[in-house]
User: Fold this.
Amino acid sequence: MKKVVRIRYILLGVVGGLFLIFFLIFLASKVTLGNVALIPIVGQITVDGTAALGSRTVSSEDIVAFITEADANPQVKAIVLEINSPGGSAVASDEIAAALKKTEKPVVALIREVGASGGYWVASAADYVVANRMSITGSIGVISSYLEFSGLMEKYGVGYERLIVGERKDLGTPFRELSTEERKIMERKLAHIHNFFIEEIAENRRLPKEKVKEMATGEFFLGVEALPLGLVDELGNLDAVEEYLKQQGLTRIDYIRYEKKASFVESLAGVWQDLDFPLKIVNANNRPILI
Assistant:
């Protein structure tokens, strides 16, 4: 009987010891020792991260949460944005840029392949911008294009019954052509957003607004072209980022990577990622305006 009790105590001790070991390992896995937050911004920038077929997207809600979390973490001394984005929603890009401006920690943007349009808007809000010499940058412009089917419908005898209250309610529908006045209305709205874009770049990069206007044709620039224009601060890669951080007083650089794990559907969509930047076809009636 005593032997049985003794064996039970031994087994309980072994199980308890294993549990303690696993618990300590679990705690250790949760402890982050990094002092630099690395936040990837990859794909089309949207508000909620909703993926269109063939496009990889990133959510401004997630990125803003990561920035806020890193800013509140006393262990984090700097934030690095790793950007590979052709742009996206004007609202989503503005939300991320606004969050960056609130942090008092040094923020560095690294443009790898693409940091265009909304992607560049985000990068410009950083304290320092590093870009690969062959990267795509700039593309300061706004687009709200869509396919119009009225000619095709007429050819096949398909009609569009227009039942609305409010004469502009179906502005931008693909089932009829825009009138001259409607086209002017759409262009005025795009001009407002374009002006916001220009003002933000001018303020973020400390450039004269007139100079930014001259570049704001929607043209993209290679990194090597963007440097003399004042759109980026340095050509290089992560090594250049780290050298800058060392100049800011960081003697040790260890990264904490902030990113959302992709779902199966998002991973599948990434396989078919759209490479035709920076143009996007959207329905002006029910899709966000892209930059």
About this structure: The first strand starts at residue 36 and ends at 42. The chain has ten helices and ten strands.
